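Standup notes
- DV: blocked on the single-chain target, sequence here:
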Amino acid sequence: MCLLVPWMTKKVVGLKMDVLHLDESVRAHVVAITGSPVTKVPMMGVGGPGILKFQGPQGEVVLKYTNAPEAVFYKNCAPIVRGKGLGIPDVYAQGDVEGKPWVLMEVIPTIIGPPYIPWLSNQIEYLARLHSLGQESPDMLGTLPTRLVAWTPQDVDDAVSLWEGDDAAALVDFLHMPWPPLTGKPVLISGDPNPTNWGKRVTGQLVLFDWAEASWSHPAYDLAVLCGGFPDEGTVKDVVERYLERTTIPASGHVDQWVSWVLTAKLVSFVWFAAWWRRGQLTKAATAGINALQKGLVPWIRAIRPAMSSMGL
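- DV (later): unblocked, structure below
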């Protein structure tokens, strides 16, 4: 099964905004969709800094202040992704305020909540189809950043500073051990398909609604994020086998190789998360996640490392 620990929060957008003082151009777009008067309403379990939901007599809309990759994704890649039958939010308008991109998008009526396991096969199918689009749609190349799934020496220094004593020393040792490089041609990835970022339309169509980490990268990173929490080898192998049954990406590597890639990508995501926290790039909502990471990361590495060694990796 795929265990979820709901604490992989987003990097801070950097825009402090009073809902009563929206930029006039943004307000005009909101009113055109919702009608007037406009009311801010709760997001019902999702949201964060720079994400607001508005409702009026004509309808409702989500306003998201985001980053450049997500803005580029919705402008250049979203039409192609939608054209392949994958669910992503419809976009009504987008622009920027003082250099900060914003997107007005569809309200997804149902956000998927626990238990998440019943949705896992459909989510894996979705990601397998998404990852094929790089081969099918070369015109998308160059519109998003390319992300290398690996930590830098600075990432390690910043991340390890959150630990003390024996745990810090053990973490340094682990991160300086050889880990398998994620090889292969980059594909279009979501970058954040964690189980809390999915919803469904009234038609039942599955919708992935967070694209702030979209990039060209290794597909194992998406699978690692989909496996929430501290996944063991068996959990990852189950996800990998289902994925390899569905993907159209030319095969590269056997199941064990993919398992090692996903586990390595998961470790990279943890190192990045800790480093982002140290640099002040996360909101206070990430506090619980950081506490869980400090308690669980070293034991998790100790648990998975022998399995990777047994694979000869």
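- Follow-up: Strands lie at 39-41, 51-56, 59-65, 91-97, 100-105, 110-111, 187-189, 198-200, 206-208, 215-217.
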